[in-house]
Amino acid sequence: MKQQACYLPAEWHPQSGVQLTWPDEYTDWASILVEVLPVYEQIAREILKREKLLVVCRDKTKLPDFLQVESRQLIIREMSVNDTWARDHGAISLIRDGKPSLLNFRFNGWGMKFAAAHDNQITPNLMRQQSFAEGVITQDLSYFTLEGGAIESNGAGCLLTTSECLLSKNRNEHLGQAEIEFFLKKILHAEKVLWLNHGFLEGDDTDSHIDTLARFCSEDTIAYIRCTDSSDIHFDALQKMEAELKQLTDQYDRPFKLVPLPFADPVYDENGDRLPATYANFLILNKAVLLPVYEVQQDAEAIEIMKQLFPEREIIPINSRALIKQHGSIHCISMQFPQGVL
């Protein structure tokens, strides 16, 4: 990778830690807390084995015992929260001249679909509570709505996103595609913005966040969900997305290596509504990848593909059926920070 003075690091960049915002009885998880808390606890334990964990919560006395006491590895911060989607209310990290800086964008509940006034203040509150390392530069960009799940970086100048999300109403609708692309290049120092115009998941509230559809696994490799069942409602859109991916080129105008991920068998909630089960919503950690699985036959294939994509990292399957009941998965509930932030 060529050296840039400022760039948006890829997720596999060495990390200092990960933020989780903890569910409680006042979040949308209330009705299934007994199901979802063990998933959060498993994810928290896996993070703590490898790096620091920043836990945002309403009341730290409600945390499990192993998260009750701060340590060099564990940072706990109490504040008001609406919900727990740290990927989208968490700070986005840049690397400037070899040092990390944090960008605070506006989070408005995915285009004002859900209340987000408290979540929009989580990053500023963390800054005020001195949650980040001394000397970490912070920048307020709260005039622009941007969620972490809406963008993917290959760490070398390419930014991958979807027009369905970034051009949606109630985010930055006063700006056109050219203006948003100019902004992303200027603020996130992207050399090339890659737009996907097709692809969606039933049950997704985010207007097709890229982290549910296609992910960078290395500077030149993209893993993406592929639907081969012509009777499935997703078939046409995901076939068109695959065709778009084949036309994309990197910062050197070279095609990407494309690795299809299996499409999970349908998973439904108690009302018969389909849930967004996707293997693309994995989280890369130092020396590991947390992979959502859903108790369906495609889980085993997804695990094997991930082992090939990340041969130097341990692949840790996490049963995420509880997470998708609130329409997100592992990547959606977490936000990683590069070395030097925590």
TrEMBL record:
Gene3D superfamilies: L-arginine/glycine Amidinotransferase, Chain A. Keywords: Hydrolase. GO terms for biological process: putrescine biosynthetic process. The keyword Membrane does not apply. Pfam families: PAD_porph. InterPro entries: Peptidyl-Arg-deiminase_porph (IPR007466). One of its GO terms (molecular function) is protein-arginine deiminase activity. This is Agmatine deiminase. It comes from Sunxiuqinia dokdonensis. The lineage of its organism: Bacteria, Pseudomonadati, Bacteroidota, Bacteroidia, Marinilabiliales.
